[in-house]
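In practice, a research group might receive sequence data for several interacting partners and want a quick structural hypothesis before committing to experiments. The following worked case mirrors that situation: the sequences arrive first, and a predicted assembly follows.
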Amino acid sequence: MIPSERIRWLAALAVAASLGLSVAAPAAAHGPDPVLGGGRFSQNEVLAFRWRSGAEPPSAIKTAIRNAAADVGESKASQAATFAYSSTGANPIGYGTGTCGVNGIGCFTRSAPDSFTMWLREHGRVYDWGTLRWCQMLTTLTNGCYDAETIALDEFGHVEVLDHHDNYADDSDYTDAVVQTFSRTRPKTGWNMHGFGPCDTATLQVQYDIPLASSPVSSCLDLATVLTLGASSTLLGDGGVVTFTSTLRTITSTAYGRLSTQWLAKRTVRLQQRPAGATTWSTIATMTSGSPTGSYTASVALHTTADYRAVFSTPTTEGLRGDTSPTVGVDVMPCTYICPLSVEG
Amino acid sequence: MDRPTRPPTVAIAILALVLGAVAAGCSVTARPAGSAAASAAIAPSLAATAPASTPSTPSTAALAGGPPRAELAAEGGDPTEGQLGTFVWGDGGSDSPWLRGSRVAVGSGEPLSVTFRPDVPVATWSARYVPATASDPAGARPLGGGTGHPRFAAPAAGTWTVELHVAFASGLGKASYFWQLAID
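A structural hypothesis for the assembly, expressed as tokens:
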């Protein structure tokens, strides 16, 4: 993903939100999924669904829908709602004729934070575009069928808040999202995705937050971070021990939604030293993630006056931008009267 | 039976549409010429980017049933209603396959325009086309894009499926429409 595109998307989101409008404009390509209007469900809310009376899916489709609900829980990477079957669930899921428009194979309604509905059309229905075949309903798998689990997961994504992902023109990023304008049939790449893609979870994280401060941020995001550094002492005798403390969080931005000012734990933060008179930095410790959340510490015995900084390098596996803390200078006095105790400045 | 629509939200969106139309500094820029790689930003004024003949806001009842019908016409020709594909509208939506489209015979390069019934304001649109034998948008080529009523030129001779993707103003919803152009 091109970071500037993601940032433009986030900026657009912020402006739209400030105007009180639903964010329905096209997102930058390959950015996080756009969001639907109508609000969100509560964080980690369990949405119970039942089979719609008179329109129960056949067994194979029920299994696919249940599996899709499990896929949500396993792949949401956020505090988005989950879905669970209950015979008394408030939210009906139906199967058969009579809804989803003229050409639709699956559809939904959402009324966050209260309820939703979902519907899958019946296997064998003849449309102008062809005959709907659910792979799960076939005795022998053949090409051209739709995976009901994938389509149900797409619909669950809509229920959460996700609009269709805006792909590159060549669709090369198709598997970055399961919530697609045009779902694929077997055996095209992505026809049977059984988990949200990174650009689905990116929006879920912005809307619902990450599960823990240590949870990875979706690689479909590109969030700026702020790294600080302090020292327990800036003047000490030779061999004295200084404890450096750093904090790491995302910047404060309305565009980041629930990821604004997000403390980030268990990342790799390195402590670097530049001796007085030198021009190059060298890593002297990897700081330890601890309490309070988002803080990192390293205790080091010092023997020379030097500058120190903390470095959080841009990770390759998640959507965070690296940052370098401001420099902290620590003076080390010759070992005469006070060694090795530190000297409080 | 639940339909993928929810009138109260649509009504709110219409209110937002009306307010948005009079508010300065509130609008959506175009997604350039069918390029999904292009970015879109919410920035200047809706009034500034709306077509000269900004459609009046349709009634709530007219919009409650889902996206408007889209009719494509060449200059002086009879309009042909497009096939409605995937859409989100109000508090719901429907997912459809890539469609073949409603057949229309036009000349190469002929200017084509699309109108909506009811005439819902358009925030952005983009059009692209693939050979009519294609079953998905892979390899699609752009035909155009912008704000206001969609207008684009018919592609070269051949039989093509054209998808028009529309984001309607004020977050009313989005929809894809399809035509099959038979071009001499």
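Before designing any experiment, note the following. Chain A touches chain B through 61 residues (CB under 8 Å). The two ends of chain A are 47 Å apart (CA to CA).
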